[in-house]
Amino acid sequence: MPSAALTYADGVLLRNGRPHRILAGSLHYFRVHPEQWADRLRRLAALGLNTVDTYVPWNFHERDEGDVRFDGPRDLARFVRLAQEEGLDAVVRPGPYICAEWDNGGLPAWLTGTPGMRLRTCHGPFLRAVDRWFDELIPRVADLQTGRGGPVVAVQIENEYGSYGDDHAYVRHIRDGLVERGITELLYTADGPTPLMQDGGALPGELAAATFGSRPDRAAALLRSRRSGEPFFCAEFWNGWFDHWGEKHHIRSAESAAETVGGILDEGGSVSLYMAHGGTNFGLWAGANHDGSRLQPTVTSYDSDAPVAENGALTPKFFALRERLTALDGAVAARPLPADPPLLAPRDLPVTPRAALLDALRAAAAPVPGPLPLSFEELSLASGLVLYEAEPLLPPGEHEVTVAGLHDRAQVFVEGTPVAVLDRESGSFTVSGTGARVRLALLVENLGRINYGPLLGQGKGILGGVRVERRLVHGWTTRPLPLDRWTEQDTARAAAAAPPGGRTGFATAVLSVDEPADTFVALPGFGKGFLWVNDTLLGRYWEIGPQATLYLPAPLLRSGENRLTVLELECLGDRITLHDRPGLGPPEEYVETFD
């Protein structure tokens, strides 16, 4: 058995027997177009880092049970080999839970929607599913280890488990599963810098690392008081933060980030910047948080105020951190600074209204009948929209209609007319009855599956039924709309399925380019919806912000004409605008702390 590249003794991290620091940055291959992987890795090396770390999202590789993919944007091995070509070591964080503000924390919806499933525990069905996934994944990671000629020097055990539970047998099962499938490099756990979190997630005999955004001296003191012979490792230093819809754009000053990194290094520690380059939650992969009273869906951008911006631009934070990192004794030699990627010239694109909302959606999916509304999980739908319709018989007069267990947002139509927008959990609206049947339509949107905390794995759709006063409404037709799986042909069919009508529905625009380059897309006058570019769902937009532009990377464009398709749920605008800089919203300085 080959020896591990990274070891430690007397509180000192060693690489091949010599003192070493991990100077890492998180860069997620699944948030960057594959044609840009090499460029973004080169920028991490220019920052002064010697290592890249990445999660592996299970649901990205196995969207449908049994269909495991490692090709194209899922080619983990290619990404890791590109890191090696840039002279970077690699740290792999295979979960199976990753958080990462990623939909469902990386767990597949087909798994979490299984009745009776007990996530992140020794529950037999969960362990068996994890084992099958690890049988596919871990041998691939093992083949990339330094002992086999690759760059992988460390593998993380689960992820911040101490913030979730205390089933130590489960964490040991994950550790043992890594070893049994060939992992011989350094193993470590990563948890918050509190006794409770470290107690829940750390394992005897394996390096215990911490994740935090401030007070490195306190974190170092805690870890050393518990593991005196282990080196200090900040497995995630939060030099920026992510954003939720309806909140402000979180930033962290370059000076604050550099000062705290300096504190970690002054403690003799290793560090991984979270994020070094954030990338984008393309499609519908953005997750959501829940603060105990409300859902907090994450925006499409994962810029995270990182040193390398969403489009690869080098920020002031990049230069502040680079100065600190390259000044270290034994630091890697400063690399040449790459130029910022080219951008398209700003312009306006006129929009042509196409199919009306409800008529187009009815044509886009076959109805599934049922006595009660079916959940997303019952429809084998991970994300997107579901259109629910029923025709209850209502006596004359005003009637209160209640939607129970709504996850997450419903637009309500009575006889085709919009009458209400309901938020999560429950809501009600009033319908006038005449003694005849009334056509109800509820368009329910999954705003992102919860990625952190005890509500992980919650279902989506109408989970508690619809009542007219005390009486349940039966006889529903349900149409699942997997927007993130639609191709250019699918969106073209939907946009042509019905005539335009009203202020909602499909619309298109044409973008002609001689040579593709990056751009930032805004939709002024639009309310809420989804934007496709050719075959790709770029993501969700929403006028409540903070994000006002969507990053469109050059590889998604082709020379000549490109088709932009909008599905607008609230209010169509008349133009799409291209910008040469991002619009991420009003900033708010933010540093996550553990008090």
TrEMBL record:
Residues 507-562 form the Beta-galactosidase galactose-binding domain. Residues 13-326 form the Glycoside hydrolase 35 catalytic domain. It catalyses: Hydrolysis of terminal non-reducing beta-D-galactose residues in beta-D-galactosides. The active site is at residues 160, 236. GO terms for molecular function: beta-galactosidase activity. Residues 373-481 form the Beta-galactosidase 1-like first all-beta domain. Its EC number is 3.2.1.23. Keywords: Glycosidase, Hydrolase. Pfam families: BetaGal_ABD_1 (PF21317), BetaGal_gal-bd (PF21467), Glyco_hydro_35 (PF01301). GO terms for biological process: carbohydrate metabolic process. It is an enzyme of class 3 (hydrolase). Gene3D superfamilies: Galactose-binding domain-like (2.60.120.260), Glycosidases (3.20.20.80). InterPro entries: B-gal_1-like (IPR026283), BetaGal1-like_ABD1 (IPR048912), BetaGal_gal-bd (IPR048913), Galactose-bd-like_sf (IPR008979), GH (IPR017853), Gly_Hdrlase_35_cat (IPR031330), Glyco_hydro_35_CS (IPR019801), Glycoside_Hdrlase_35 (IPR001944). Belongs to the glycosyl hydrolase 35 family. This is Beta-galactosidase. It comes from Streptomyces coelicoflavus.
